[in-house]
Design brief:
This protein is an all-alpha fold and 398 residues long. The chain has one domain: Na+/H+ antiporter like fold (Up-down Bundle). Helix content is 79%, strand content 0%. It is built from 17 helices and no strands. α2 (32-43) packs antiparallel against α17 (367-391).
């Protein structure tokens, strides 16, 4: 009973704090997500350490909150996909892939070089570079949604490139795991399996969505079931997210984003958006953004780790702005557009933490590097919304 009461109270605190901080952030002419991230840092182990308090230390309160946070990022990405016009997205697909690829290449190179300079082994240094390059599409998506810029050319390139970035990074990371742990992954042969899993999932998910979703929404909407359509959309989104990781070996958010894209082509897109928006932004998304700060503990880093952390944070920012900006510029975007894309790709999030957890579990990175990566997630998540807003002061609308 104590754990359930603690869970109810912590949810009330988190949601209220997120909305209050978001309101204050907007009053200061900043995106709401910036305030939510900051208050998460205040509530986390860096300052208050909410889950260290006696009231919330019983049962599985912390675990339950983080599970809800994972659901929050899944439905945030679903709504981001639902906002996009696929026909416009196709036109910018090549630009997005080039942008993502160059961003990955530059960041991996810089991250590996910095790790080698701090006396990491070659394998550990490569893992540091790979972990560092995973962009958080969710932070950029939330900021673009707030600014009303999802359907601009820059917004479309940015979101598509962020998804492509995650796919590239997860493929490289999975390949690195297979090659460095041949007993578990059968070495080079496992790389072929990884590619086949990704292709199988993407092809199957797109085919099912294109053929079944339009008829599915019409039939379910006609049934005498309370919120039957929204319930069906939630189920399908969760299944797509699950299958992305379980079958495709990709991040669950990739599956959720793909589900949103496919539902955006259905005749009831507006009804779906209205139905899923309330639960997503009223409950799940605030928990997700607060949870980033709740995981960060700046006090875990000692003085000896400070130089490495500062260098890695600098690489995280410079690598994406330079690499992704250059890719966008070479693909035909203007200098200003390329800069906006580069800034939007700076934020890191759930995929980087997943990658860092894998490296930690394999023993190729120490605990201090994991703590550094959490700090990178927090710093870049805080910087990106403010920088994007500044870069979009002269809005380009579709």
């Amino acid at each position: 009973m104590e754990s359930s009461l603690g869970f109810l109270l912590v949810l009330a605190i988190i949601i209220f704090s997120a909305k209050a901080a978001g309101y204050l952030s907007i009053r200061l002419h900043q995106p709401a997500v910036l305030g939510e991230l900051l208050v998460g840092l205040i509530l986390g182990p860096t300052m208050i350490n909410l889950f260290g308090l006696e009231t919330f230390s019983h049962g599985h309160v912390q675990e339950a909150v983080f599970y809800l946070a994972e659901a929050g990022v899944i439905f945030l990405m679903f709504l981001a996909g639902l906002e996009i016009d696929i026909s416009e997205m196709r036109k910018l697909g090549k630009t997005a892939v080039v942008t993502a690829a160059l961003g990955v290449a530059v960041t991996v190179s810089l991250g590996t070089t910095v790790a080698l300079a701090f006396n990491f082994s070659a394998v550990s240094a490569v893992f540091v570079g790979l972990i560092l390059t995973a962009t958080s599409v969710s932070i950029a998506a939330q900021t673009l949604i707030e600014l009303g810029l999802v359907r601009t050319s820059v917004g479309l390139v940015l979101l598509t490139a962020a998804v492509a970035d995650d796919i590239i990074v997860l493929f490289l990371l999975s390949s690195a795991v297979a090659l460095t742990a041949p007993a578990a992954g059968n070495g080079p042969a496992a790389v072929i399996v990884i590619v086949l899993r990704m292709v199988l999932y993407l092809a199957g998910a797109v085919l099912i969505g294109a053929l079944a979703f339009p008829r599915l929404v019409r039939r379910i909407a006609a049934l005498p079931i309370s919120e039957g359509l929204i319930a069906a959309v939630v189920v399908v989104t969760l299944l797509y997210a699950w299958a992305a990781e379980a079958i495709g070996g990709m991040a669950a958010i990739t599956g959720a984003f793909l589900a949103g894209l496919l539902f955006s082509t259905t005749p009831l897109r507006k009804t779906i958006a209205e139905g899923t928006h309330t639960i997503t932004y009223g409950l799940l998304v605030p928990i997700f953004f607060i949870s980033i700060g709740l995981k960060a503990n700046a006090r875990a880093l000692g003085r000896d780790d400070l130089a490495f952390t500062l260098a890695i944070v600098a690489v995280a920012i410079i690598g994406k702005i330079v690499g992704c900006g250059l890719g966008a510029r070479l693909s035909g975007l203007s200098n200003r557009q390329a800069l906006r894309v580069g800034i939007g790709m700076v934020s890191r999030g759930e995929v980087q933490l997943i990658a860092a957890s894998i490296g930690l579990r394999m023993g190729v990175i120490p605990d201090t590097v994991f703590a550094t990566m959490v700090i990178v997630v927090l710093v870049t998540a805080l910087l990106t919304p403010a920088l994007l807003r500044a870069a979009f002061q002269q809005k380009e609308r579709a």
